[in-house]
Structures are given as C-alpha cells and as structure tokens.
Amino acid sequence: MTSSGTPLTPKHGPESAANLAVVTGGTLTAERPPEPPLSEATGRPVQPAPPVRRTRRAPAGFLPLAVVAVAFLTLPLVALVARAPWGSLPAALSAPGVLTALRLSLICSLGAVGLSLLFGVPLAWLLARLRFRGRDVVRAVVLLPMVLPPVVGGVALLLAFGRNGLAGRWLDGLVGITLPFSTAGAILAETFVAMPFLVITVEAGLRGMDRRYEDAAATLGAGRWTTFRRVTLPLIAPSLGAGAALCWARALGEFGATITFAGNLPGATQTMPLAVYLALQNNVDTAVTLSLVMLAISLVVLVGLRGRWFPSR
Amino acid sequence: MSLHARVELVKGTLALDATLEVAGDQVVVLLGPNAAGKTTLLRALAGLIPLARGRVVLDGTTLEDVDQGVRVPTDQRPIGVVFQDYLLFPHLSVLDNVAFGLRTRGAGRRAAREEAARWLARVDLAPGCAHERPKALSGGQAQRVALARALATRPRLLLLDEPLAAMDAGARAELRRELARHLASFEGICLVVTHDPVEAMTLADQLVVLEGGRVVQRGAPGELASRPRSRYVADLIGLNLYRGRATGARIDLRDGGRIVAADRVPVEGDVYVVIPPRAVSLHRTHPEGSPRNVWSGTVAALDVAGERIRVHVAGVPPIVAEVTPAAVAALHLVEGVPVHASVKATEVDVYPA
Questions:
Q1: B130 phi and psi angles, rounded to 5 deg
Q2: Residues of A in contact with B75 (CB under 8 A)
Q3: Cys staple from B156: which of A139, A215, B188, B190, with CB 3.0 to 4.6 Å?
Q4: Which CATH number is A299's domain given?
Q5: Four-point Cα dihedral B259, B260, B266, B269, nearest 10
Q6: How many contacts does A have with B, using Cβ atoms within 8 A?
Q7: Helix (H, G, I), strand (E, B) or coil at B35
Q8: Shortest Cα distance from B197 to chain A (angstroms)?
Q9: Residue A71 lies in a domain
C-alpha cells in the first residue's frame, strides 16, 4: 500500500505498458512514464534510471585494421567475379569436362556427408553422453584431421588403404576392393577430412540440449532408440544441419587428400577443385568459370546457415 | 493398488533414505523444503536414478530390487510423470505430445491421435490448442497438456513434481481444484511433490514430510497440521513447536524455558509441545490472573498474516503470538519493546516425540 496520491506508474509491473512498448517496439529506450513514481520510503520522486546506452567506441586502431581485413577477404572474390568470361559462360559451363567434374564433386561430397552422418552421429553421441576412459584421447584423434594438412591425410590414407597399405592389402587381396584412384577412394578422402566438422558440431548440440526431454520420453515408454529418433534428433536438428552443411562444404572443397590418395582421373576422381587447378594451367577461363560455380555453391550454403550461425540481432 | 518402496541413494550432498508404503488408490503428497530430496525420490521411483540400496514394488511387481539385481528400465515401468516445467516436446504439436506415450506403446498414429484428443478434452483444453506447438500455450494450458500426456498411457503410478509451481497465484487456486478433481478420479497411486502447504493439505490423502533426505513425519493432513513433528512443518502451519521432557504436567524445554500443560501429561519423557499463536496473549506489564505460563521477552519482529499480525517475541522460549492490529496499536508494539507472553495451560498440546 502506498500512502502517496500518485498511482504507481507502470515502471514496476512486468506487464506494464511501458515495458511492453520496449519489447514489442524493439527500441532501446523505454517510453518514459508521464510522472516519476514516488518512493515508498521517502515519498520523493524516484529518479528513473537513464536509458541504457552502451558506449560502442572501438579501441584505437581497430577500425582501420578491420577495414583492411574485410578488403583482404573480399578483394579476391571481386577479382574472380570481375575476371569472369560472362559472354562465354554458358558455353564454358556446358563443356563436357565441367559437368563431369561437377557431377563427381556432388557425388563425392554428398557421399562423404552420408558416411559422416552414418558414423559421425553415433560417435558424437558416445563422446557427448558416455564417460569412458580415454574419451579425451578419442576426441583428439577424431578432431586431428581438422588441423592436419590435407596432403598429409592423403599420404596417411595411402599407407592405410593403398594397395600395399595396412588395411588396403587385406581389402585388395581378400575382398577385391581397390580404393586408391577410384571414386570410392575420393569419397573416403573427403570423409576423412570432413567428418570431424560434423562430429564436433553434433557433439556440441548434444551437450547443449536439455537431457530431461529424454527422461520425459522414457517415462512415456520410449526405449533408447525411439527416444533418440523421436526426441533427441529433432531437438538437435539445428546442430545436425549446421554440422552436415559444414561437413559438406569442407568435402566439396577438398583438394589435398583427394589428389594424393585418389589421384586426378577425369570422371573417376577429378572433382571440381582438382579440375580448377588443372584448368588454370592451360585455360584460365575454364578455371574461372569452375571457380564461380563453387563460389555460388558456397554462397548458397552460407545463406542457408545464416540463421543458425549468425542469429541476426 | 499398493506401493512399497525403500529408496536409498546418494546424490551430491543429499543422502536419501526414505520408505513409502501406500495401500489403495491414494494421493500421497511429499512435502519438504528445498533440497530435501523430494524430486530425487520421484526420479528414483521413475527409474531415472538407480537405487544404491532398497527396492520398489508396485502392485506386487518388483520394479527394482538391488539385492536381487532387478531393475526395470523407466520405459517399461507403468508410470506417468508430470515434470516441474512439464517438458512438453517443443518440436511436436500438443496433440502429438499427448499421443507420444500411446505411440510408443504400439498404437497406430491415427488411433493414438484420437485417444489423445479425448484426453485433451478430459483436461478441458480447448480443441483449438491441439495443433499448436507447446510454446504457444499459457502456463495453465501447458500444465493440462502435461497431465493429459502422463494420464494417457494409463499409468498405475502417477508422479507429479511441483505441478503448480510454475503458475501465478491467480491461476493457481483454480488449477489446484482442477488437479484435485483429476487426481481423485485417477485409478492408481498418485505421488505429488510440493513445498506449498495449501497444495499439500488440499490434495493429500496421506502426507509424507521429507527433510534432509529422510522422512520426518507421515500421516493424514489434519493429524500433521495439529501435531507437527518438525520445525519445518510447524512453520508451514504457523504453530509454535517445542521439544522437551515432560514430568507430570511440567515440560522442561530442550532449548531452555518451561511450559505447563493443563492436566498430567499422558506421557512422560521426550515430548513435542505445540502452542497455537492465537492462544498467546501479550501484555506490557506482568499479567495477573489465571494463565499459568507467563514469561518475558522483547518484540523481535512483526509481520502481517491476513487480518492478524504475527508478533515474534524473543524470550526463553521464543514464541510467536497472533494478535489484532488494534492490540498492536494499543500496546505500542514495535521491534525492541519488552513484553510478557502468556499462554493458558489448556491451550498447550503435548504429544510423545
């Protein structure tokens, strides 16, 4: 109860009109109530808190450095677009080599995403949910290909799955599967490099979700598999999508491990990046055209992920 | 229906050691302060936390028995749970939330949805809400959906964790009446966790008070209200509670002071003493007359309780008196004022500890 004659202004209630105006209007400054409220203790008007206006002044030198960074990152792309042989683009795009490389790239990168999902999601689940000895070691090993130079990955793959490799010898001799210099080999190389991106993203998603939803599912009679399929997966869908997209982008651009392990055979292992590199040796226009196609694909992925990675504020 | 549970486990700093015996379709309310282990006990019964020792037997079926190595996983227990913040699946519609438990138990999609719609109608949820996402619901609606989801699988043991905690005071009374109605018609055993005494008193057939992981008192709500056995319960009910040793009609209190009861106390030895705050009179001068319990102290605090004022008197023993605002004004009672408290011996209730 207040003894003051002034009714309490809406400043105090969460349902107040002033606060609602802030929320719905999306402005930073609250609409000032017509009269300042009276303090219950002193009876004097309460000083309304000044509208929060954070100083957003960057440390000295940050602005020019940031401008340089942006220029550095955009200039090459601008050059690429500027150099594009726009007139002959349709012809260049329909050249048989281009389409073959594009098709192969899609097959290989989607194959890599498929393998990464199949093996990477269970792995991420184990890393996120189970405590076991050596978990940190397993995680480090799994994430190693992210920082490993891809060429080194290619050499390592060759030593493991090459004809005379550790596992390759057995695969070749007993099962009759030869991986190097085959499309399957290219998929394997891309998976090796790209899967960690999926694992790390999905693991973060699993750690971030409220596990009590899984408890709720269990109390409703859902077994472990049903719970995973009907509750866990939908709840981590954003992470799963982001992880898959990252993984796919990485696989699509993969060069070093693929050329080292799978070689550069047109139609079998010559993916877009390899084709670009090769074209640059004798036909710059083709190289630029292929590069533009990949730039377009990257942009599409980026726009698709915008909401997930960069929540626009 | 019957439930026999002995739950022993350690979780963090909590050492839970509690026994529950329920016979018949009762509503048992678990009452206790924060961190008393109420929710942990509920989760243990649901099979979400393994027991360290003990067993859970529902209707003759052993759900868990540490000695025999039996442990039925949560998804195979005939239970329904309403979680504190409901945990409605955000990616499913209200209808599919309720249908979830029916689907996992083998119902087809269409049959499960039809059954779910019937349950939504039973908890008085507007049919228009069925296709909303849970995010669009009000707190009261979400609570109804959570109840429908738990009831739809026709559990034999229904566990509710602070079902009304998320409600604002206005909606609470109405929802409490509604909940009482649903629980009364529920065929099975119902366990409700709460720290709200009104909720406890209105819902419970049996009250179990948990403190520090142990059951400190159990019984019918009325019995508990008139004869509390812990400071927590006494404070909830608003009674003065003391522990002491009875000799004849005289009780020497454990923490100092002495109280005289009307007649010879029926028990000798360790007893509880209860004095209702309304039975305490306050005086500025030493009162003459019949009250046999008179002691002095100072006013430590005043707070408003409905149309009365509760005056906390620091003395030996300390006591809370409930007086009218007029009395407070007449006696000029403010913090720090010396007063005398008097209690008639006939108002003192004594029972064995």
A1: -55, -35
A2: 217-223, 227
A3: B188
A4: 1.10.3720.10
A5: 40
A6: 61
A7: coil
A8: 26
A9: no
**Architecture in CATH for domain B238-279+289-352:** Beta Barrel (2.40)
> Strands B27-31 and B206-211: what pairing?
parallel
Q: Does domain B2-234 have CATH number 2.60.40.10?
A: no
The DSSP bridge partners found for residue B339 are: B297
- Which residue bears the tokens 């389409």? A99
Residue A104 Cα distances to A111, A112, A184, angstroms:
10, 12, 11
Under DSSP, is residue A209 helix (H, G, I), strand (E, B) or coil? coil
CA–CA separation, A278 vs B306, rounded Å? Answer: 87
Write out the two tokens for B238. Answer: 């608003």
Who's near B79: CB < 8 A, 6+ residues apart?
A: A219, B45, B46, B47, B155, B156, B157, B158, B159
Which of B74, B89, B105 is the closest to A218 by Cβ? B74
**At residue A255, what is the residue type?**
F
| Residues spanned by the domain of A129 | 89-309
Secondary structure letter of residue B192 according to DSSP: E
Q: Which residue of B has its CA nearest to A237?
A: B91
Contacts of A230 in chain B (CB under 8 A): 100
Contact predicate B67/B55, CB 8 Å:
yes
Strand B189-194, strand B206-211: pairing: unpaired
Q: Is the ipTM of this complex over 0.85?
A: no
Q: Which positions in chain B touch A235 (Cβ < 8 Å)?
A: 90-91
* A interface test, pick of B79, B81, B87 with most A CB neighbours within 10 Å: B87
Omega of the bond prior to A51 within 30 degrees of 0, cis? no
Residues from chain A that touch B47, judged by Cβ atoms under 8 A, are 218
Number of CB atoms found within 10 A of residue A44's CB: 9
Residue A16 in any domain: the answer is no
The CA-atom distances, in angstroms, between B315 and each of A18, B257, B331, B332 are 49, 9, 18, 18
The string of DSSP codes covering B294-352 is EEEEEEEEEEEETTEEEEEEEESS-EEEEE-HHHHHHTT--TT-EEEEEE-GGG-EEEE
A246-268 burial code (b ≥16 CB/10 A, e <16): bbbbbbbbbbbbbbbbbbbeeeb
Q: What angle do CA B192, B196, B202 make, to 5 degrees?
A: 65
Domain ranges within chain B, ordered by starting residue: 2-234, 238-279+289-352
**A223 touches B at CB < 8 Å:** yes
The total domain count for chain A is 1
> Cα A293 to the chain's mean position, in Å?
20
Return per-residue pLDDT of chain A as tens, 313 residues.
334 444 433 334 333 333 333 333 333 333 444 444 444 444 455 555 555 666 678 898 999 999 999 999 999 999 999 988 888 888 878 777 788 888 999 999 999 999 999 999 999 999 999 999 999 999 999 999 999 999 999 999 999 998 888 888 888 777 777 788 889 999 999 999 999 999 999 999 999 999 999 999 999 999 999 999 999 999 999 999 989 998 999 999 999 999 999 988 888 889 999 988 988 888 888 888 889 888 888 888 778 776 655 444 4
φ, ψ at B147 (rounded to 5°) = -65, -45
